Every structure is written in C-alpha cells, then in structure tokens.
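User: Can you help me understand a structure? I only have the sequence.
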Amino acid sequence: MDQERTVKDRLPYPYNQDLSAVLCRMNRRTPFSRQRLANDPVTAAYVLAGMQLIRRHLGPGAQRVLSDPDDDNSLGRPLLSFLSQRAVAAEMANNPVPFPRVGSTATLRCSWRSHSDYIADLLNFGLWSLHEPALYDSRIGPDTEQLLEGTEFVEAAHRLCFYDLTTIVDGPTFRLELVATAAAEGDEVIQEALAANHQGAMEPWKQVYQEMFLARGLRLRPGVSLDDFAGMLAALASGYALRRIGNPALVSIDTSRQRCIFGTAALALLLGCVEPVAEGGAAGVSTDDAVRELIYGQRTEPSRQPDQCAPTRETDHPCTSGDAPQAPAGTGQPASSESETTTFFTQLDRLCAEPQPPEVRQAATALRDLLLAQTPDR
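Assistant: Let's start by predicting it. Here is the structure, written out as tokens:
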C-alpha cells in the first residue's frame, strides 16, 4: 500500500489527486474497494491513455492520417467511423420506398472516387441549412412578420426562439454538426462544410434583422455589426441546444406556452445591442457606455474640447491639511497654499502702485479691495 501511495503521489496533477469521487463506476462491491481501485496508479494510467486518444483524435492539435497516401483529402475521420462503406451499403436495405434498397461497397466506390469524398458530400448535405426546411418555414413565417409590424413583437420573438431551439434539439443536423466540429481541426473538407452551413443558416436571418431594424426605427449600437448580432444569437441557440441535449433539466422548454429561456436571452441581447434611431442621425451610445450608464447611473459624456472643459471641482483638489486656506467665496478659484496667496496679493499691489492705464489700475484696485474685504486677516 505504501509503495502504491508513493507511485500515486509521483503522478502529475490531477492524476495524483483522490479520484474516487470522479471515477464512480469502478467494478468493486464495497465502497472501500471502489475507492482503492479508483486511486490505483494503473487506473490512472488507463484514464491518461483515454485522454491522450481524445486529444489525438479531437484536438487541439489532432493528428490526421491519410487513408490513401496519394490523396490529400483522404483523411481518416474516426468520429464518423459508423459511416464506413460496409455500414452504408448495408443500411440501403432500410431505405423506404421508392428509394433503391440494394447496395454494395462496389457501387458506392463507383459513385465516389474515395470514401473521403462520400463523407464530404454527406456532410455538405447533412449540414445544409435547407435540409429540413418545410415545417420550420411554415411555422416561423407569421411570427417573422410580427417582428416587422404588429403588436406581438415580444410574444413572436419568444415563439421564434422556441421553434428554433426545438428544431435544433429534435433533429440530427445539430448533432452531426457537433461531431463534425470536434473533428474539424486540420480537416479542410469538414471546415468548408461547416462554414457553408453557418453562412446558409444566418443569411436569411440577417435579412430579417435588417428589415426589422428599419421597420421599427432601430439601429445597432456603435461597435456591433449585423454579422456580430446574428452570430451572437446563433451562439445562444447552439449553447442552449448543447445544454438541453446533454441534460434536459438544465434548459426547460414550455411546450404549452411555446417558450424557453433562449427567448429571454435573445430579448436581453436585443436590448443591449440595439437602440432607437436618434433624431438627426446623431451618434449612438455603445453597448459598453450603456452598461456604464446602467451600473453607475450616469451616461458617459462625449469628449470636450479644451475650451469646453468644465470648471474644476473643489473635490478634484483635496486639502492635505485642515488648516489649508480656502479660496475666497465667489472667486471660483481652487484652494491655494499660503505662499501662493501671498504672491498673488503682492502682484496685485504692484499693479495698483505702478503706472498703469486708468482702467487696469481701477480694475486691480477694485479686485484687491474685494478680496481684502473677504479676507480681513490679511
């Protein structure tokens, strides 16, 4: 036991930690035996081997091996191994009428030069944004009109988000996208299919957003582009779909009311990134400044030119001593030190005593008398 503990302690973090709370399904009958097996160095070695395979095949820095050394596009795709030529040919027997139901690897190879080419085309089709459009488009049509005109903007937005999230979760396309994304690093075929899917899915919605802004007198805040806004909404949808698939309890969907948390998140994003068009087309407030206004209760003012600077506030020059003299009331001058005040009065006395134009001497005398009246101790 001591020797095993020594080996365990020498393992790198986190394999040297107590793994009994993480590895909960060890094949032992008693809790003590399960805990001991979970912390056995051999168990840690198996866990490390699995993690290395995950990194090797999924990345980052995934290793790509060519199935055909003479074909640069024949990358092996282990996550899509269920789509082997034999499996695809056998699945032909389950095709519905009127599709052909007899297949073979030979005919499959006649249609595609390599299995990699077949996978590429299958991904392009499976990730195609119009793969299953009919039901979806028929549901969203009336509510997209509500975004442009109508009195149920908020309700329509919630329903659209509900349709979007349920369509993503209940169909195979998003799940294929997840697998393809995990295998996309270093694979141009998958990357191009994913990029085409994203663009095809977002372009129609970008047009809807643009028309909605114009119809409702809205605009995006400075620093947020239409691509940014559409991308953020798409990321919200994907994130909630991923959480819903992984654990349905994390993202509740109210089918009766056709609502989900994605709708609330989308409206919050709209509230933060969009503002009414100001009269005269004045520059808007950025999202950062809008948040500052929310947190600090004061909108950030535009930068002033030097001649527009506000008068210095007294709090900008705190006194370092309670005995420091204050500026005479009504002068608008900040507090100064005793030496600065003495120098000021000396220069003022010189203006009054030396030959000056009558108007200068009169103004200097009047100012000196006013200040002396307010500071009798001088």
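Now, to help you interpret it: Confidence is low (pLDDT under 50) at residues 302-336. Strands lie at 218-220, 253-254, 259-260, 274-276. Let me know which part you'd like to focus on.
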